[in-house]
Amino acid sequence: MIVNISDAKTNLSKLIDMVSQGETIVIAKNNRPIADLVMHKPQGKRKLGLLKGKINIPNNFIQEDADINEMFYGD
Prior knowledge:
alpha+beta; 3 helices
């Protein structure tokens, strides 16, 4: 179903009810489709620790490096 923006603003509640029943609504501006109104699909939770055991962080990671400090701050 294609609906122009002005009609979509007026009938948003009805359109959302239609989407919740599985319908896809195309919102148009000047009869040109610009957006789809579809049912929300949750992305799921992020998984933490995906790189555990795959990368090695050296023990001196947070120690300052004299050469790098000289590049930034000079002598």
